[in-house]
Automatic annotation (TrEMBL):
UniProt gene name: tyrA
Main location: cytoplasm
Recorded GO MF terms: chorismate mutase activity; prephenate dehydrogenase (NAD+) activity
Record localization: Cytoplasm
Record-given protein name: T-protein
Pathway in which the depicted protein is active: Metabolic intermediate biosynthesis; prephenate biosynthesis; prephenate from chorismate: step 1/1; Amino-acid biosynthesis; L-tyrosine biosynthesis; (4-hydroxyphenyl)pyruvate from prephenate (NAD(+) route): step 1/1
InterPro entries (alphabetical): 6-PGluconate_DH-like_C_sf (IPR008927), Chor_mut/prephenate_DH_T (IPR008244), Chorismate_II_sf (IPR036263), CM_dom_sf (IPR036979), CM_II_prokaryot (IPR002701), CM_T (IPR011277), NAD(P)-bd_dom_sf (IPR036291), PDH_C (IPR046825)
Keyword list, A-Z: Amino-acid biosynthesis, Aromatic amino acid biosynthesis, Cytoplasm, Isomerase, NAD, Oxidoreductase, Tyrosine biosynthesis
Species of origin: Symbiopectobacterium purcellii
Amino acid sequence: MVAELTALRDQIDEVDKALLGLLARRLALVAEVGEVKSRYGLPIYAPDREAAMLRSRREEAEALNVPADLIEDVLRRVMRESYASENEKGFKTLCPQLRPVVIVGGRGQMGRMFEKMLRLSGYEVRLLEKEDWPQAESLLADAGMVIVSVPIHVTEQVIAQLPRLPEDCILVDLASVKNGPLQAMLAAHSGPVVGLHPMFGPDSGSLAKQVVVYCDGRQPEAYQWLLEQIQVWGARLHRISAVEHDQNMMFIQVLRHFATFAYGLHLAEENVQLEQLLALSSPIYRFELVMVGRLFAQDPQLYADIIMSSENNLALIKRYYARFGEAIALLESKDKAAFIASFKKVEHWFGDYAQRFQVESRALLKQANDSRI
């Protein structure tokens, strides 16, 4: 039995080595594709090409009695690595005449990401930090674009303190709240203004498939090239008004982050043994616990700023708290019929998305289970 298993495992090792060789060849070809895209200013993410390729590979896999989901999982992981490697090839400069870009707060994580992407795209980038403020006027005198990337609680203050910018300079902010900073930029600068919100963390590695929200401010024709440049980096753009943005972020960020904070605080106060939780957890609970832990591995000032940025946020959290109390009242009453009725009400609100999310979550849970040791 041992000899038979050893022989089979040796063959598996040979196949694995062959796979490594094919992966190396694929990555080399991707590098060549990246050079061509860079030369012609093509986005690194081509959704139609990706969808068509995955569809073809799934059909070919089924013909070979290979699970279609397996080849898709493998290819998606390979493509993620490919997008990251394409980053290093650089990007076409869509606005070669642009004067220097100044990033205020460029040593922060998001500022560093934009510095890297702009440099890879051939632009001259300068950084303006707190200690450089005495030289701000000279640093900004010939700026073609100024990007404000500072903590939320000082964003509007920093914008108001900017020295006079050239009339055609594009003023941009990267804050995760938009209406206040956008109004501050419009008041501080008479030239082109746009608000950006990168909907991802600076540890993403690549902008491929990431969402960047933009809120028009003034003279959109002047910064159209910037939006196109962001698309060349692989991101998807979503246009929305600043007011609508902040209303949606109350649910996407504020309520979610606060609920996660409260859950993590409760676990800590209960002094739960994490090792035991993980040992006993199903993939879905482990994944949820990972997302809670992820929050507490990051900058607490950022989350305090997001959650406390508006009185509207507090009002929303209080409504959530009231509904939490109503749910507890259902438990106290032991009214299962009322609980089920409430459950079905939410199910109806989700509509078809409930089933879609169930299917989507299966893939995530499989990945979470694969990572267990």
